[in-house]
Amino acid sequence: MSSPLPTADQLLYTPEEAAKVLRFGRSTVYELMAAGALKYVKRGRSRRIRRHELEAYVNSLELLPN
């Protein structure tokens, strides 16, 4: 059984939650974080992605012509 998507009013997302929201694989999110394409905050060993960083990443994606 799949777990529900995080709520829209959530401020910080784990990489796993971000992957669900973006409909990407978990490893893809970690690769984007490592490449600097998806910014995150780190507290101890935990990494969290701000909601506005997810939105900025999506807005930066190039649209393909029809």
Fold blueprint:
Elements: E1 12-13, H1 15-22, H2 26-35, E2 41-43, E3 46-50, H3 51-60
Antiparallel strand pairs: 1-3, 2-3
| Helix-strand category | alpha+beta
Helix content: 40-55%
The Cα radius of gyration reads: 12 Å
Residues in β-strands, percent = 15-25%
Mean pLDDT: 92
| Count of helix runs | 3
Tell me which oligomeric state these chains represent. Answer: single chain
- Please state the overall shape, judged from the principal axes of the Cα atoms: globular
What's the count of strands? 3
Unreliable stretches covering 5 or more consecutive residues: none
What is the N-to-C succession of helices and strands?
Answer: EHHEEH
Largest sheet: 3 strands, antiparallel
Q: What spatial order of strands do you see in the largest sheet?
A: 1-3-2
Distance linking N and C termini: 36 Å
Question: In a few lines, what is going on in this structure?
Answer:
This protein is of the alpha+beta class. Helices cover 42% and strands 15% of the residues.
